[in-house]
Specification:
The complex is a heterodimer of chains A (438) and B (314). Chain A is mainly α. Chain A is 67% helix and 6% strand. Chain A has a 4-stranded mixed beta sheet. A two-stranded antiparallel sheet of chain A has the order 5-6. In chain A, α9 crosses α11. Chain B is built from 10 helices and 14 strands. Chain B has 314 residues and is of the alpha/beta class. Classes of the chains: A mainly alpha (438), B alpha/beta (314).
């Protein structure tokens, strides 16, 4: 045991002292915040206004488009119904206008279906098309209603919207936004596990390859068992990783606060809103915020955290054993690609399943099955836990995960034991299989 | 003299390839034992089995009267042929780490390191990184690492490769000093002159089989050709040649000599050397008379090529 702790210590110190580790640890949060600020800045910039010409032969719709011309709007419409369509088309190709809407004359406005054209050099955005269709469609509806002598105002009043109130069977009230929070929490933890596996699994692999290329492996292996070395390496690297993550979290939070204090003056109490408005706004806000916070406390926080720790350990060890075995099998990092793909695939798959399937149906059969399969369960199950998962499913999933974990560690240790002493050739899958029998 | 290490009928296979075929060795306590063999003969496989890096498929290894077991790694020091250290780790830390892995306490390791660094005059290297050292310097560190824990058995795979003559000599003296202190040393090398100089026992492994084993003198006796290098000053060369060829086989020889003498190789078979001397002295002045003792190099090449012929005949 003391030898394993010796190895863990060395691996940890070697990682933490590494220059690139230090740089990454302190630079990444800065980069992250810088990117966030940059994106925020970009999205606050106004897009270039696009000039849209309208050739309306009916003379009914042009005014409705012109009503859309507001300061700062993305599109500016020009009514050019008098000008010949051909001349207008030329101006499109000459890029005087970004687009041209042509509304032909028909006997009845209802015949316009499928006859309105939009001409441009570039395909328009979906929102633009929808907006244009809405403007024309609403106008026609309005005309139809008037023709049928119906009171449009009365109809508008008669239309109703219903907000569904969500209540759990246990009687607690529930907020609609809570599902998003659940997904957010589960997703964040699941994503964290994936990132951690990819970053630090790779680190384990590199450190195995390093020992191989340094040729120190033979000395070490004459003093300790390969299995001890492998476990020590995985644990040591993950401790360094946890430290790095913690530093990231602390620096990131600090910078975020600093950035919002620096850029976000208008969200603070100095904002120039009349006191009464502020009070009512605050009241409303704090009302729902209190409910959100209360609801958050109703989440199975304990099981989320315990689940995170268990699945984190199980998933990380499972995958990093694979990484260690791959590192042992190859001579340099470029050779590792062919073996890495089958490892990355289930990770990506589980994130997709999490964000698409679990969101729609947390207890559907696909979500349940993938939260059982050991390679995907750490991420998928973690995303399901906030929605409440029966304990027996968690029990099966965790025991499957750890059973597989022990099997994979055994398997990886075998490959590792043989691989670290094999130099100078790139092994095939077939050879790896042969090594298992050595 | 008892044996420190005994290898009994060890077999090791990698897939279909037989790396060691029923190999047995006896390494006497306190000896320097040369393990010889061409590349790919199975030396490294055998060394790895002794170091418990791999396990034999069958056969057993006895170390100091006990069957080899995990605790024995602490009594063995190993200098692998493929040298290497953590390139970005500091020398001192690295040595401490590797010594602790061999079971030394940190304080004991520090004490031993001070002793050895002082002895080899490398005190100033403690805080240097391996990547800042030259290859020869790193080799010295590696030698220190494998002797720190005062191993009973020291396995050195090509210990002199990478050293300049001065440093090779320093290391050689250290090896001899360790032997004086009671360590047993297994010496795997291609450099026959160092084997000739240092080893008392040798074993030759070729194509997974052990071909020769024994005391160097015994092995040489076994390979002696009973031929003599002779230098003689004579006026009657024809008469001399006639006399000799009656009894012995003669071939011309070449060796350095200050005299303008006739140089011959004479094989005497079962006859006594004096018989040859009698014939020679009757015909002239003997200036040179030496038994041709096969060098280990000769034995090595002879055995390996004979074995090759045997194999190709099969």
């Amino acid at each position: 045991m003391s030898i394993i702790s010796l190895i863990i210590k060395r691996e940890f110190v070697a990682k933490v002292r590494n220059k690139s580790f230090v740089v990454m640890t302190f630079l990444s949060p800065l980069l992250f915040v810088a990117i966030a600020v940059f994106i925020g800045y970009l999205s606050s910039m106004k897009a270039e206004t696009k000039r849209i010409a309208i050739h309306d032969e009916t003379g009914i719709f042009a005014t409705d488009f012109l009503k859309e011309n507001k300061k700062g709007a993305e599109f500016k419409y020009y009514n050019l119904s008098e000008i010949d369509v051909k001349a207008l088309k030329d101006s499109i190709t000459k890029e005087n206008f970004n687009g041209l809407i042509v509304i032909p004359k028909t006997a009845n406005v209802n015949d316009l279906e499928g006859k309105v054209e939009f001409i441009s050099n570039n395909s328009p955005s979906i929102s633009f098309i929808e907006n244009t269709q809405d403007i024309i469609g609403e106008k026609i509806t309005k005309l139809n209603l008037e023709e049928a002598k119906l009171d449009t105002l009365a109809i508008q009043k008669a239309q109703s919207k219903v907000n569904i109130h969500l209540v759990k069977a246990s009687g607690e009230e529930s907020l609609k936004g809570l599902n998003e929070i659940k997904i957010g929490i589960g997703g964040a933890f699941g994503y964290l596990i994936m990132m951690f596996i990819i970053i630090y699994g790779n680190m384990v692999m590199r450190s195995v390859i390093e020992e191989k290329t340094n040729r120190i492996i033979e000395i070490i292996i004459s003093s300790v068992k390969p299995f001890q070395l492998m476990i020590g390496k995985i644990v040591g690297t993950s401790l360094a990783g946890i430290l790095q993550f913690m530093i990231w979290a602390i620096i990131g939070l600090g910078l975020m606060f600093a950035a919002s204090a620096f850029f976000g003056v208008n969200v603070g109490p100095t904002a120039r809103i009349s006191p009464e408005m502020m009070q009512t706004a605050q009241h409303e806000f704090s009302g729902s915020a209190q409910m959100y916070i209360a609801e958050m406390w109703n989440l199975p926080i304990a099981s989320i955290l315990i689940g995170f720790v268990i699945y984190f350990i199980g998933g990380y060890f499972l995958y990093s054993s694979f990484y260690a075995a791959i590192g042992a099998a190859v001579d340099n990092q470029t050779d590792s690609q062919q073996f890495l793909l089958p490892i990355i695939m289930p990770l990506i798959l589980s994130v997709y399943i999490g964000f698409f399937t679990v969101v729609n149906d947390p207890h559907g059969s696909i979500a349940v099955i993938f939260s059982m399969i050991p390679l995907t369960s750490p991420i998928v199950m973690l995303m399901r836990i906030p929605f409440g998962v029966p304990w027996w499913q968690i029990a099966i999933s965790v025991s499957l995960l750890f059973a597989t974990f022990f099997f994979v560690v055994w398997f990886a240790a075998k490959i590792y034991r043989v691989g670290i002493l094999m130099y100078g050739k790139k092994p095939s899958w077939k050879e790896l299989y042969k090594w298992l029998k050595y | 003299m008892s044996n420190l290490l005994e290898v009994h009928n060890v077999v090791k296979q990698y897939g279909d390839y037989v790396a060691l075929n029923e190999v047995s060795l006896n390494v006497p306590k306190g000896s320097i034992y040369g393990l010889l063999g061409p590349n790919g003969a199975g030396k490294t496989s055998l060394i790895r089995i002794i170091n418990q890096i791999t396990l034999p498929d069958s056969g057993e290894v006895i170390l100091d009267g006990e069957k080899l077991q995990p605790k024995h790694v602490q009594t063995i020091g190993y200098l692998p042929e493929e040298r290497g250290l953590y390139s970005s780790m500091k020398v001192g830390e690295q040595c401490l780490y590797l010594a602790q892995m061999k079971g030394l306490s940190k304080a004991e390791a520090k004490k031993q390191l001070d002793y050895w660094f002082d002895r080899l005059g490398i005190q100033g290297w403690w805080n240097k990184k391996i990547q800042e050292l030259s290859k020869g310097m790193a080799q010295k560190i590696q030698f220190v690492v494998c002797v720190l824990h005062k191993p009973k058995l020291l396995i050195l795979d090509e210990p002199f490769s990478g050293f300049d003559p001065v440093n090779a000599n320093i290391i050689k003296d250290e090896i001899l000093a360790l032997k004086e202190q009671g360590s047993t040393i297994i010496f795997s090398t291609h450099r026959m002159e160092s084997v000739e100089e240092m080893c008392e026992h040798i074993a030759l492994i070729h194509k997974s089989n052990k071909l020769i084993e024994g005391r160097v003198a015994d092995v040489k006796r076994q390979f002696r050709s009973n031929s003599f290098e002779v230098g003689i000053l004579t006026n009657n060369v024809e008469g001399l040649m006639y006399d000799i060829t009656q009894k012995f086989t003669v071939s011309p020889a070449s060796f350095r000599s200050l005299n303008d003498d006739l140089k011959l190789n004479i094989e005497i078979g079962n006859a006594a050397p004096n018989e040859l001397l009698n014939v020679l002295t009757q015909r002239g002045q003997v200036t040179h008379f030496v038994e041709k003792i096969p060098s280990i190099n000769d034995i090595f090449i002879q055995t390996v090529t004979e074995n090759k012929k045997l194999n190709s005949n099969n």
